[in-house]
């Protein structure tokens, strides 16, 4: 037990190494740009550079902070088995009977997706019926609503609660890299032809340009991929394994059109799209479907029933004992 705890503690410490690397590079870029490149120069061009640089730097830090420290959302108590349901499920040894128990419980929940076998998606580790687009993360050791992936560079699960922040982090990172590279390039040329004296600034300018271009290229592909995912209303997991509905797998099951797909992630108020505040639609437990009109969508029909049954279900959910969380398949 003590060894297991020690290993887990070491894992948590090592998981912050990628974040520390990114933070160190960004802090060094701030020092190199402001103090080595611009400090002591008073021209209007340099003042303009510094103003724009600090706007980009602040937005980058703000979005990175939100992507790291916004906790992933987990299913509400509605999706946890009550004490009596949990007892019945565990005492039943026949798999078919267990599936039937889960099916009866799921009738009261807004669930449209199924496992590959056609059964209700259930996490044995968290003892929870998985909402649509929810998956278990073995790193965070919890089920995450609309899970996209676990990102080591933010040491966090990217999902419903912070997907907008993650996208903004990628976009402001690209803007930061483009601005630094474009403004540093002219000084790089001057150092190259010998118009400026050699000194510490030459080293910083050289590596500023190299690092900015290197990060921009890698971020460009990642950001482009996630833009495609947003346009199609898919998560990274859904892009690799199509969600299964009652009529079978469908990669475009949640695709309701470009405009509504964008609103699900960024919200309806376009003035807030580029600010790292939470504006995503819904609560991550249910999503509109492409194949059905809203008036015919059983997901939305179950939503009303789900809300009406709130009181009694919450009371039964409170009776749940502590659950053990270990690795499981999505």
UniProtKB/TrEMBL annotation:
<dbReference type="GO" id="GO:0019706">
    <property type="term" value="F:protein-cysteine S-palmitoyltransferase activity"/>
</dbReference>
<keyword id="KW-0472">Membrane</keyword>
<keyword id="KW-0808">Transferase</keyword>
<dbReference type="Pfam" id="PF01529">
    <property type="entry name" value="DHHC"/>
</dbReference>
<dbReference type="InterPro" id="IPR001594">
    <property type="entry name" value="Palmitoyltrfase_DHHC"/>
</dbReference>
<comment type="similarity">
    <text>Belongs to the DHHC palmitoyltransferase family.</text>
</comment>
<feature type="region of interest" description="Disordered">
    <location>
        <begin position="303"/>
        <end position="330"/>
    </location>
</feature>
<protein>
    <recommendedName>
        <fullName>Palmitoyltransferase</fullName>
        <ecNumber>2.3.1.225</ecNumber>
    </recommendedName>
</protein>
<dbReference type="GO" id="GO:0016020">
    <property type="term" value="C:membrane"/>
</dbReference>
<keyword id="KW-0012">Acyltransferase</keyword>
<feature type="transmembrane region" description="Helical">
    <location>
        <begin position="165"/>
        <end position="189"/>
    </location>
</feature>
<feature type="transmembrane region" description="Helical">
    <location>
        <begin position="12"/>
        <end position="33"/>
    </location>
</feature>
<keyword id="KW-1133">Transmembrane helix</keyword>
<feature type="domain" description="Palmitoyltransferase DHHC">
    <location>
        <begin position="120"/>
        <end position="240"/>
    </location>
</feature>
<feature type="transmembrane region" description="Helical">
    <location>
        <begin position="45"/>
        <end position="65"/>
    </location>
</feature>
<keyword id="KW-0812">Transmembrane</keyword>
<dbReference type="InterPro" id="IPR039859">
    <property type="entry name" value="PFA4/ZDH16/20/ERF2-like"/>
</dbReference>
<feature type="transmembrane region" description="Helical">
    <location>
        <begin position="201"/>
        <end position="225"/>
    </location>
</feature>
């Amino acid at each position: 037990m003590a060894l297991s705890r020690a290993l887990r503690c070491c894992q948590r410490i090592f998981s912050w190494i990628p974040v520390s690397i990114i933070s160190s590079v960004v802090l060094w870029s701030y020092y190199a740009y402001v103090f080595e490149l611009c400090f002591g120069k008073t021209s209007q061009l340099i003042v303009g550079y510094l103003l724009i640089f600090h706007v980009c730097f602040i937005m980058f830090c703000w979005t990175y902070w939100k992507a790291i420290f916004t906790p992933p959302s987990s299913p509400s108590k509605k999706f946890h088995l009550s004490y009596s349901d949990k007892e019945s499920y565990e005492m039943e040894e026949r798999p078919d009977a267990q599936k039937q128990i889960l099916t009866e419980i799921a009738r009261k929940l807004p669930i449209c997706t199924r496992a590959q076998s056609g059964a209700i998606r259930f996490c044995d580790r968290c003892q929870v019926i998985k909402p649509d687009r929810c998956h278990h993360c073995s790193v965070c050791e919890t089920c995450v609503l609309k899970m996209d992936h676990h990102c080591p560079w933010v040491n966090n699960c990217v999902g419903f609660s912070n997907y907008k922040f993650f996208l903004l982090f990628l976009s402001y990172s690209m803007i930061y890299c483009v601005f630094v590279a474009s403004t540093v390039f002219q000084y790089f040329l001057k150092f190259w032809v010998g118009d400026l004296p050699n000194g510490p600034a030459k080293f910083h300018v050289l590596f500023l340009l190299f690092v900015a271009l290197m990060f921009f290229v890698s971020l460009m592909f990642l950001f482009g991929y996630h833009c495609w995912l947003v346009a199609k209303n898919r998560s990274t997991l859904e892009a690799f394994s199509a969600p299964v509905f009652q009529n079978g797998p469908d990669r475009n099951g949640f695709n309701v059109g470009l405009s509504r797909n964008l609103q699900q992630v960024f919200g309806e108020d376009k003035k807030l799209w580029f600010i790292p505040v939470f504006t995503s639609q819904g609560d991550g437990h249910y999503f509109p479907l492409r194949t059905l009109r809203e008036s015919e969508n059983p997901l939305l029909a179950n939503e009303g029933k789900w809300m009406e049954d709130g009181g009694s279900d919450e009371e039964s959910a409170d009776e749940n004992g502590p659950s053990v969380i270990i690795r499981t398949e999505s």
